[in-house]
Amino acid sequence: MAESRAAVRYAKAVLSLATEKKVADKVNADMKQIATAIADNIELDAMLQSPVVRSSDKVAVLKAVFGNANEATSNLIDVLITNKRIALLGDVANKYNHLYDALRETQVAKVTTATPLTKDLEKKVLSKVKELTGKTTEIENIVDESILGGFILRVGDLQYDASITNKLNKLKREFTLN
User: Fold this and answer.
1) Burial class (CB in 10 A: 0-12, 13-18, 19+), 67
2) pTM for this one?
3) What is the pLDDT of residues 47-106, one digit of tens each?
4) Which of 18, 39, 91, 171 is close enough to 27 for a disulfide, judged by CB 3.0 to 4.6 Å?
């Protein structure tokens, strides 16, 4: 919990600085890239979490991987290294993205489908979500063939599961209860 609060503080500080310098969009793109890279790469995450790896080695790896990042993002990495909090980098990046979306009053709707969404269907989902929430929305399409068909829509804390797998599971529960 304390680490989460620290990540929020770092994210707020970077967002404030980036907004002041009018580079919040660029820093947001950097933070998305950092969050994705750490989430997708187990070795990178393990290296950042490891107390055995020297800080200078961590800096060298991060500069090599995120060398084209904005100055505010590079400064964040330097501050986290100096304060011995570099293990929070992925969490800070995620918190920054959430704070940035809240500042812009946008949200991300995650739509899980068995096949990729078409542009037409994506527009329909966007308009329906905007109608329901009143906020500007971005779509993140996740393809998961295990749901067989239909979709799962997650916006913030709300989830609507209209997948074939969910319907089959409901039928299975009904038959086992009777």
Assistant:
1) exposed
2) 0.72
3) 999 999 999 999 999 989 988 889 999 999 999 999 999 999 999 999 999 899 888 888
4) 18
Query: 109-162: per-residue pLDDT in tens?
Result: 888 988 998 899 888 888 888 887 888 888 888 899 888 888 888 887 788 888
Domains defined for the chain, CATH in brackets: 2-102 (1.10.520.20), 106-177 (no CATH)
Q: Does residue 163 come out as left (phi exceeding 0), alpha (psi in the -120 to 50 range) or beta?
A: beta
Handedness of CA 45, 84, 61, 31 (dihedral sign): positive
- Cβ proximity of 100 and 15 under 8 Å: yes
Strand stretches in 66-156, DSSP E = 106-113, 136-143, 151-155
